[in-house]
């Protein structure tokens, strides 16, 4: 079954016309940006369309849709190994929204604290902190891994002032998966909490928050459904219920209060307190269904299969002399992404050539991880700025595969690249 998941995917292998008029099957290697969509998920979503009602609306259909929406919280709890008696699941619009929310709450807790983030992060897990707090940024090694000695130095340097360390569970550029449990142990030793940005992790690898008493426990986790084969907004921010009880909403509006008068506002308990405005009913139903699909296939099976794809792709790319791959000496590449450049060519030209002339879609640019990409390219901030001023932002080409890609697609991609 794992070899043939494309049959469950909308738009996989559809015919597309190339610049020279040939019709070829579409190949989608840009899953880190957003994935194609699971057909069974859409079927479930569509079945709910005629039965739509507002959350908490009176009547059986209101009750039904409310239950469907609320039940997804348990699906998420199970998916990330959270503790239903201690954790809560908030539905942000996406991970960016969830991380901004968390940043706001830590700011409410103490605006003078120091937050540690890393040079490997997507900007969604960087700017929400660097723009609000005094931050320390953990560097990366020449292999492209996180520098854990630097993390410990920073924890030491800011001892007593660091309350949160935020780190990616998997790089959206190189596919490196930092050792999150080793990191959480270290972070807890210094009395801080850890947020894992699992946006690129949960669809590729088993993930477990571990029990609260465990020093490897992950305090907060966030992910987005649209990277897990749904077409909608919607995601999850999971963390301790007691923590979320302490703060005011980040977004004000209706649906987040128990009582309001012109004199008094009493906020609802979490998670409702943090879900102002129209609830993303279909996005959340889709998230629940996609998680169940992934669990049915088996995340271990997905991981094994994708590792095979990654190794095959890497081997083939290594044989093309003009391809420069980044961070390929890391031992921690566990998701099927590869960042590369073609010697003498600008990254977007390579990506456009693949898309227009071969129907193969890949990413190009900085993938939202500007600082990491600059470090992989060995470019200083000043050099990066000069390139930007000159109209040529530095960047890479990124292949990001998913559970429905296959070896035949890799062969076609390699042949296309060889023709450059
Ligand atoms: C590692 C990582 N974190 C966060 C995000 C932000 O996700 P979203 O755009 O769904 O909020 C991305 C998006 O690519 C990402 O790759």
UniProtKB/TrEMBL annotation:
According to the entry, every stretch annotated as the Aminotransferase class V domain falls at: 27-413
In the record, what lineage is assigned to the organism producing the protein? Answer: Bacteria, Bacillati, Bacillota, Clostridia, Peptostreptococcales
Q: Which UniProt keywords apply?
A: Aminotransferase, Pyridoxal phosphate, Transferase
| Gene3D superfamilies, per the entry | Aspartate Aminotransferase, domain 1, Type I PLP-dependent aspartate aminotransferase-like (Major domain)
Per the UniProt entry, what species is this protein from, by scientific name?
Tepidibacter hydrothermalis
Query: Which cofactor(s) does the record list?
Result: pyridoxal 5'-phosphate
Asked whether the UniProt record includes Cell inner membrane among its keywords, one would answer no
Per its record, what are the GO molecular function terms? transaminase activity
Q: What is this protein called?
A: Aminotransferase class V-fold PLP-dependent enzyme
């Amino acid at each position: 079954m794992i070899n043939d998941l494309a049959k469950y995917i909308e738009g996989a292998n559809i015919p597309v016309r190339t610049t020279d008029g040939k019709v070829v099957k579409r190949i989608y290697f840009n899953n880190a940006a957003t994935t194609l969509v699971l057909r069974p998920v859409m079927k479930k979503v569509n079945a709910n369309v005629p039965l739509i009602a507002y959350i908490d609306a009176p009547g059986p259909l209101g009750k039904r849709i409310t239950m469907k929406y609320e039940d997804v919280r348990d699906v998420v709890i199970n998916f990330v190994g959270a503790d239903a008696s201690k954790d809560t699941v908030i539905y942000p619009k996406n991970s960016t929204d969830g991380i901004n929310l968390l940043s706001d709450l830590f700011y409410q807790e103490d605006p003078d604290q120091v937050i540690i983030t890393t040079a490997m992060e997507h900007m969604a897990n960087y700017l929400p902190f660097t723009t609000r707090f005094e931050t320390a940024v953990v560097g990366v090694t020449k292999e492209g891994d996180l520098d854990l000695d630097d993390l410990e130095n920073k924890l030491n340097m800011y001892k007593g002032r660091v309350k949160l360390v935020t780190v990616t569970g998997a790089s959206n550029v190189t596919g490196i998966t930092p050792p999150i449990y080793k990191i959480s142990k270290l972070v807890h030793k210094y009395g801080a909490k850890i947020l894992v940005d699992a946006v690129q992790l949960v669809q590729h690898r088993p993930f477990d928050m571990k029990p609260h008493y465990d020093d490897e426990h992950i305090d907060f986790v966030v992910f987005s459904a649209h990277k897990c084969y749904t077409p909608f907004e919607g995601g999850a921010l999971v963390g301790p219920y007691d923590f979320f009880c302490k703060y005011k909403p980040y977004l004000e509006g209706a649906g987040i209060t128990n009582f309001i008068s012109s004199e008094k506002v009493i906020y609802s308990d979490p998670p409702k307190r943090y879900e102002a405005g129209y609830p993303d009913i279909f996005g959340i139903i889709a998230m629940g269904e996609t998680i169940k699909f992934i669990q049915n296939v088996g995340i271990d099976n997905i991981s094994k299969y994708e590792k095979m794809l990654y190794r095959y792709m890497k081997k083939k790319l290594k044989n093309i002399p003009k391809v420069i791959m980044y961070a390929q000496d890391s031992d921690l590449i566990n998701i099927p992404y590869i960042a590369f450049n073609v010697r003498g060519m600008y990254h977007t030209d390579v990506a456009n050539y693949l898309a227009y002339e071969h129907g193969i879609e890949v990413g190009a640019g900085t993938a939202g991880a500007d600082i990491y990409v600059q470090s992989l390219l060995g470019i200083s901030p000043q050099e990066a700025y000069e390139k930007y001023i000159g109209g040529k932002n530095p960047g890479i080409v990124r292949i990001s595969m998913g559970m429905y890609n296959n070896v035949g697609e890799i062969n076609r991609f390699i042949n296309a690249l060889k023709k450059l």
